[in-house]
Design goal:
The protein is of the alpha+beta class. The chain has helices at residues 8-16, 32-40, 66-100, 125-130, 140-162, 202-205, 207-217, 220-224, 230-252; strands at 21-22, 59-60, 102-103, 107-109, 112-115, 120-121, 166-170, 182-186, 191-192, 254-255, 260-263, 281-282. The protein has one domain (8-282).
Length: 291
């Protein structure tokens, strides 16, 4: 299955919902004489404005006006390009994370697997997002915006990951009564990742958490250059798409090939032919989330 299913058009609409206009802080000319001169400054053809970016990201401060519409199309297109490239970068980073993620330090008691917070481990997403093909070549202010998004997403994802548990799931039915002194490595019964509950699941399925972390991570000089806080609308759009993508991913991602094994204490003298696994463990090899 794909790593994440990002519905990019949702981010476009979320950004548009903020109703941002260009040019910023626009005021129409006041007074009849001034207004007449203002209107005469534009040719009739300049008052025919057809948007080229659909759906739009910014709204012209005055409609119709070709120059304002062109500004919205150009800057809106740049915002859309950054938005799409960052989503592609997160998908890339998440795919790399899945290849290396693994469950560790599980305790197996009969059929049940028990894992405390920290049992799921994997690489940090932040450097993976920065090195993604869609973002690795970003420079200047765009790189600073990239770093803020990367840090925000990685911070929330790490909080979720560090609190994932395995709450006694029936992963190993064969271990209820095994005929031997030691149960050999056996794969678990595949189950959706969402069954491995995390107290911090809201960090990746709530847009506000990721947006706040992105806002906090943005360089102070860039915030000063953007008094109208367009960056907040951009972060809100990215976070909304990612939150939905993670919400879809958790129940669809299968946890499988977690090899469990353990001793059968009842097999010791006086011998009992079969018995449950007690105080078993798993093999912490990557590949538990590659499906």
């Amino acid at each position: 299955m794909p790593s994440l299913n990002c519905i990019k058009i949702l981010g476009n609409l979320k950004f548009l919902s903020h109703g941002l206009k260009l040019p910023i802080r626009f005021h129409s000319a006041g007074g009849i004489p001034v207004t007449q001169h203002y209107d005469q400054a534009f040719k009739p053809t300049d008052k025919i404005a057809i948007p080229r970016l659909i759906p739009p990201w910014f709204i012209p401060a005055e409609i119709p006006n070709k120059y304002y519409q062109d500004t919205c199309d150009k800057i809106g297109g740049d915002f859309k390009d950054f938005h799409d490239r960052m989503l592609d970068a997160v998908v890339f980073a998440h795919s790399m994370w899945k290849l290396q993620a693994r469950f560790q330090n599980l305790k197996i008691m009969a059929v049940s697997a028990i894992g405390t917070p920290g049992c799921l481990t994997g690489p940090d997403l932040e450097p993976l997002i920065k090195m993604a093909p869609s973002t690795a070549t970003m420079i200047g202010n765009m790189a600073k915006h990239r770093d803020a998004v990367a840090k925000g997403v990685a911070t929330c994802f790490k909080r979720w990951q560090d609190n994932v548990t395995v709450p006694g799931l029936p992963w190993y039915p064969a271990f209820a009564a095994f005929p031997g002194p030691m149960a050999p490595p056996m794969p678990n019964v595949p189950m959706p990742l969402i069954t491995c509950v995390s107290a911090m699941m809201s960090q990746i399925v709530s847009p506000m958490s990721m947006k706040t972390e992105m806002d906090n991570a943005l360089a102070a000089d860039l915030k000063q250059q953007d008094p109208d806080k367009h960056y907040e609308a951009l972060h809100d759009a990215i976070a909304t798409v990612l939150a939905l993508a993670f919400l879809i991913w958790l129940p669809s991602q299968q946890v499988m090939m977690v090899l469990g094994m353990g001793p059968i204490p009842t097999f010791a003298p006086p011998f009992v032919p079969v018995g449950p696994v007690v105080n078993g463990q798993n093999i912490p090899a990557p590949g538990h989330l590659i499906s």
